[in-house]
Write a structure and sequence with these properties.
By secondary structure, the protein is mainly beta. It contains 1 helix and 16 strands. The chain is 2% helix and 54% strand. A 6-stranded antiparallel sheet has the order 1-6-2-3-4-5, with no helix packed on it. Strand 3 and strand 4 form a beta hairpin.
């Protein structure tokens, strides 16, 4: 399906030069006595390469047709993450390298949406917030009561986030998957 470059927004998936690209940012400019342009920054799904290109707002670009599937994260097998399609019970292996830092938000048994393009997984869409248990953190020291003091906490998936001093080992905390910040105790 063709889409106008003026309608492209962040997180859209487009096809260009035989590859699928995720739009990181899209800015539209109208310069004096010239046509409006769209400055689009994109990341390749297959190589991870980031490029920035200018397009005329009226130009057409191919929007990637994706098959969205709800899948359950089962376990980690070396450098691979194993997911199960909830409707067909087929298992799918996705490289941890392809997910990057998002792999730290996956807890066994959690359900995510996997975007497939021509039978190949290209992206995993996480929920906005996840609940994870703290497995390691330093105890709070009496007297450290300055406003907004935080400490590092290692979560059950290996992810390290900054949490308030009152959080301790065994607590379940809610973490934002957008920026990796502590939201609240769950």
């Amino acid at each position: 399906m063709q889409i106008s470059c003026g309608d492209i927004r962040a997180n859209m998936k487009v096809e260009m030069d035989g590859d699928v690209w995720v739009v990181v940012s899209a800015e539209h400019y109208k310069r004096e006595q010239r046509r409006a342009i769209a400055r689009i920054r994109m990341k390749s799904v297959s190589t991870g390469k980031v490029i920035e290109r200018n397009f005329q707002v009226s130009e057409q670009i191919e929007q990637a047709e994706l098959d969205l599937r709800d899948m359950q994260y089962l376990y980690r097998e070396g450098d691979w993450l194993v997911f199960m399609d909830e409707s067909t019970y087929e298992q799918l292996h996705i490289s941890a390298k392809q997910l990057g830092s998002d792999a730290g938000y996956l807890k066994e048994g959690s359900t995510v949406t996997v975007s497939m393009h021509q039978g190949r997984p290209i992206a995993v869409e996480l929920p906005p917030k996840v609940d994870l248990r703290i497995i390691e953190t330093n105890p709070a020291v009496r007297g450290d009561t300055v406003q907004n003091v935080t400490k590092a906490a290692k979560l059950e998936t290996g992810l390290v986030v900054q949490v308030p001093l009152f959080c301790s080992e065994g607590d379940v905390v809610r973490v934002s998957t957008r920026d990796g910040s502590y939201v609240e105790r769950a």
